[in-house]
Fold:
Amino acid sequence: MRDPLWAPGDTVVERFLRPDGSIGQHHPLRVIADDGAVLLGWLPADTPIIGSRLADGRLFREAPLEERFRVPRVRVADFWRDTSTLRRIADDEWSSVWWFFDAGGDFLNWYVNLEVPLGRTPSGPDRIDGILDVAVEPGGRWQWKDEDEAEEAVLAGRITAGQLERLRAEGERIGALATAGRFPFDGTWTDFRPDPGWPAPGLPDGLL
Structure:
């Protein structure tokens, strides 16, 4: 079966799955471009999403490190806050690159979400969040994010040691591109402006 191909203006939903196959988060994206292998999608600030929190009501960051991946989680209605993001999601890459824009539409920085790719469904791309991330500033300076959480996630069985090794290798690849100022860190899409006629992408009913 041929993978789904989405047209500019379509809404897709990026889903973040847990290792057991359950769905943790849903992020709706307005399709900017898609060639069947690489999706470029837009998530503006204040867009409704399905997020997650710990089953005892705490936010993820409110729990001690040793509890963050051991306490069960539940899905909750939420919003994408503060910044808008343009996301490049390649089906065969263990990362997605996010361009962050402020409320005035000015580019801020890149954030590279390291992920395990799980392919596409008719509704959008599926990924497992790899916990470990890379932040890239204009000019190419980069740094690891959440290394301690990634190590704890392995101990808790959230990701495997083999997956973390692959994610680290992907982060090193991304870092080399950033240092060299190569795509996608060469200024491409830093002047992006969404079509003003497009409403914010929406979520389908019945997700909670």
About this structure: The chain has a mean pLDDT of 95. The beta strands are 11-17, 23-34, 38-43, 48-54, 73-79, 84-90, 95-101, 107-121, 124-136, 142-145. The longest strand covers residues 107-121. The CA atoms of residues 3 and 57 lie 38 Å apart.
